[in-house]
Amino acid sequence: MADVKTATAKPSASSHAAGKPKNSGGFLVNLIIVIACVAVGELIYHLVLGDASHFADAEKHVPKDFMGNMYLGGFIVPLLMGTFLVMLSFVIERAFTIIKAKGRVNGGEFVRKVQYHLANKNVDAALAECDKQSGSVGNVMKAGLLKYKEMMNNTELTTDQKVLSIHNEIEEATALEIPMLEKNLVFLSTITSAATLLGLIGTVLGMIRAFSAMATAGAPDATALAAGISEALYNTALGIGTSFLAMIAYNFYTTLIDGINYSIDESGFTLTQSFAANYK
Length: 280
Prior knowledge:
280 residues
């Protein structure tokens, strides 16, 4: 049993060593992205939307086009723009990660090729297929196949113990792959609700301004009334639009990850059943 612990520990150490660079500094990078997006949102709000060319009267901020009207949305607008840019940044980042994780070969086709090679007891050919796949399924399958090959020459353990050892290796490799696929999805799930709430805050503030203008003694201040309504409507539109896109992206990526998970589970089942059948 001492040999088994040593054999299991080695892949674990190398796997964690390989996974460590991917996670180091992740929080700092994400924080920089969020701050940069908010800063860009502020710049767009003040330098683009707030440009005098978008106002008939620059001093009184009387808008003459869409951008001028959006500028009247108030200080919540740049925050919503920053939120939209954060969402867009992580949508793009997750796209690259998940496309890479899917690999070059379809998961189902890859598993069938490995099954064929294992049925012919050609583990090296199965390992070559893992290199061709070069995705999360291939990585997990390769870790399992290396343990599979090791157990083929092991004379000290029973077949059940060998199958369990292969299963544990697959679970360990899966535990390293899946978190990398789900990483940063929390930003999309948070923005799904946070953007709507942020937009509603802007809506409430805008309506307060609008009703304050209507409550003014005498004739209501038309400029203040328009500004308040504009603040309410533009913040609502930006918040709901950002939330909608974040929700679509989150559900889309979650579906892709579920598909990869299924292929990983299928590959693990293939290895253990193949070993149990071929090396009784």
